[in-house]
Amino acid sequence: CTPEQRADGVGAICLMAREAGVVASGALTTSQFEAAVANSLGVFGHFGTTKADINTVIMSDTSAGYASDMALDVNDLDFDAIGREAVEKCLRSQNPQSLEPGEYTVILEPYAVQDFLIMMAFTGLSAVAMQEGRSFMSGKIGQQIVDPRVSIWDDGTDPRGLPLPFDFEGVPKQRVDLIKEGVASGVVYDSYRAGKEEGKSSTGHALPAPNTFGPFPLNAFFGPGDAALAEMIASTERGLYVTRFHYTRPVEPTKVVVTGMTRDGTFLIENGKIAYPVKNLRFTQSYLGALNQVDMIGEELRLLPGMGGLGGTLQPALKLRGFNFTGATEF
What we know:
This protein is 20% helix and 37% strand. By secondary structure, it is of the alpha+beta class.
């Protein structure tokens, strides 16, 4: 991918923003990745791949719109579609109104749902958290912990994501069901953490050394449902439409209580239609609790970059009941 090709993609978005009288910012990254692992015990693995990702924030004086996408091949990125999504969101978000905090039905775009995967992985889907007793999965394996329609797994061999056939110890990756039909099913291991438990072996989830996380699910999937986004909106009498979350932080790991804010396009839904934009809200909510109040799960998955530029996550949109917003912002 030449600099001219990257400029053409970015230019399409910038031109769209200029024609709409708004300002574009963001980043397009194309990269090659090559991993090789070898040791004197006969371990040898080699793999090369590419990836490309685009994100953009389109801003006016009173609003912002966001869009992002990712692919193995830069030619699979639709820059016009990304630009339209962000520009239209920005224009529709202008002059937001204030809204009282409280519990609302929410429709979360995949950008917001990704935070569920990241926070759940960070707080409890690693053998480290499980062995230290601070995982929301501790003592719960085999138990129903969320809605039966929710399945979350990690699979570094699935070509829909960003495949890497072995981890950074050279251990072949395997699919690990983390939550299967709402039931806590397992966590991911590297060789060191597997050695601390009887009968456990690495699942192929070692990170590059040194790291403070231990094994980590870099290729997390949130299973799709059967609902279209338009259907979610039409079925909502009153609620909030949320583009994405911002500055989220864990509060209580064993319940995955998270606090953060909405960003780049938040709207009130009334009588099955998006009524008007609202100022961003702060939430404090257990993600586990939210996943026990599922109304609908989107039918389409979106690939987004993972933590630290490693891996990627695939997730649908979600419609949830009783999401707890605790404060409002000035913007």
